[in-house]
TrEMBL record:
Keywords attached to this entry: Cytoplasm, FAD, Flavoprotein, Methyltransferase, NAD, NADP, Transferase, tRNA processing
Glycoprotein among keywords: no
Enzyme Commission number(s): 2.1.1.74
Protein name: Methylenetetrahydrofolate--tRNA-(uracil-5-)-methyltransferase TrmFO
Protein's GO biological process: tRNA methylation; tRNA wobble uridine modification
HAMAP family reported for this sequence: TrmFO (MF_01037)
Length: 439
């Protein structure tokens, strides 16, 4: 995501770009193709609400900056209520085609396994940085590579779901169209079913870690069994919360828990189980997931899995221009910098691409405004976060500077969030105008 957006932005600024892509010659645990911007963990860009949600605001800022990732996401979006979900295969193919068709971009296959000494480079290798390049980065920075473990959710064939038990509905009927209001499949559980499911989840065989590895998960991608270990009610108040939904098969019965599935492709033939990242072994997954009402005969297009993710201690290693302090010809962008999520990764690529192009052209950009969503993220990873406890971070309003004169707490949240987004949009619009102005 980050590398694709960085290349697009730099090339559109008039700088020739070469993309080095190691796939498919060198694969990863999670990727299936050689397409650029392939999505592996989920097909969701999360909320598209640019007034009350920080990630929705980031969508708005990227669209305003003519971002490729958002343009292709909009073109290949799927109904998802108030969220932005995409047909992941069509999306990646479209991003790849756009980049290959750009006259200022050349794609070269093959792995880069070292830190180049000369030229302007952006390293946007994501959380699955290859072992050789990761070792080169560690040798240069003198830092041990930080790591957390990320899990991916299973995908179910739609025609294997029992529609006499499941139903289509977005939570609180959210969405502007009927299709969006019916974007999710819901599978209800009674109390006894839920308790039996938790028991099976806790007892299931899990993937073991190699000696010397520790399971430092990012909270946004916790495996469901890890959530269950934190308390039997955790899932019921998380991805399995039963609120905002009415079962048309039994409208007078309140479900104790509800499992949601979201459409994973435009054809509607595949659905992923929302929030069900897992490190259970494959055999255990099929046994446990078939306990979900409506999925008793489910066929899985992909089972869940777990893999090691790497990221820099960016507050100590990167400057405000996202350059490696010890090698200022090298910038980093995306998840490897310690942002979490497809949108955040692409956003950091957008900024890195613009910064690199401006430096090459001798037209330095003004500082990214801290009051924008982009600026809040950059400030966090390049100095705003505590280096000793630095962990991957999604964009959120907690990263924004406080607004004076607005009510705190939950009751003042709607007005406060609207204040954040209004301020951010004004700051970002002004920055874009300055960035586009002739030197």
């Amino acid at each position: 995501m980050a590398g694709s957006e960085a290349a697009w932005q730099a090339a559109n600024a008039g700088v020739p770009v070469v993309i080095h892509e190691m796939r498919p010659q060198t694969g990863t645990f999670a990727h299936q193709t050689g397409n650029l911007a392939e999505m592996v963990c989920s097909n969701s860009f999360r909320s598209d609400d640019d007034e009350q949600n920080a990630v929705g605001l980031l969508h708005w800022e990227m669209r305003a900056a003519d971002g490729l990732i958002m343009a292709m996401a909009d073109r290949h979006r799927l109904p998802a209520g108030g969220a932005l979900a995409v047909d992941r295969e069509a999306f990646a193919e479209a991003v790849t085609a756009a980049l290959r068709a750009h006259p200022g971009i050349r794609v070269e296959p093959g792995e880069i396994d070292h830190l180049p000494q000369s030229g302007q480079w952006i390293i946007a290798t994501g959380p699955l940085t290859s072992a050789s390049l990761g070792a080169a980065i560690a040798a240069e920075t003198g830092e041990d590579r930080l790591a957390f473990f990320d899990a991916i959710a299973p995908i179910v064939h739609a025609d294997s779901i029992d529609m006499e038990k499941a139903w289509f509905q977005s939570r609180y009927d959210k969405g502007e169209t009927e299709e969006e209001r019916r974007a999710y499949l819901n599978c209800p559980m009674g109390r006894d079913q839920y308790e039996a499911f938790i028991d099976a989840l806790l007892a299931a065989e899990k993937t073991e870690f190699h000696e010397g590895e520790t399971a430092g998960y990012f909270d946004g991608c916790l495996p469901i069994e890890v959530m269950a270990e934190r308390g039997r009610e955790t899932l019921r108040h998380g991805p399995m919360k039963p609120v905002g939904l009415t079962n048309p098969h039994a409208p007078d019965v309140k479900a104790h828990a509800i499992v949601q599935l979201r459409r994973d492709n435009a054809l509607g033939t595949l659905f992923n189980i929302v929030g069900f990242q897992t490190k259970m072994k494959y055999g255990a997954q099929t046994d446990v997931f078939k306990m979900i009402p409506g999925l008793e005969n489910a066929r899985f297009a992909r089972l869940g899995g777990i893999h090691r993710n790497t990221f820099l201690n960016s507050p100590t290693l990167l400057d405000a221009q996202m350059r490696l302090r010890s090698r200022p010809n090298i910038r980093f962008a995306g998840q490897v910098t310690g942002v979490e999520g497809y949108v955040e990764s692409a956003a950091m690529g957008l900024i890195a691409g613009r910064m690199a192009a401006a430096e090459i052209l001798g037209q330095p950009l003004p500082d990214v405004p801290q009051d924008s969503a982009m600026g809040a993220l950059i400030h966090h990873i390049t100095g705003g976060a505590e280096a000793k406890t630095f962990q991957p971070m999604n964009v959120n309003f907690g990263l924004f500077r406080p607004l004076d004169g607005l009510r705190g707490g939950r009751r003042g949240r709607k007005e406060r969030y609207k204040g954040y987004t209004d301020r951010a949009k004004a700051a970002w619009t002004e920055w874009l105008a300055q960035a586009h102005a002739p030197a």
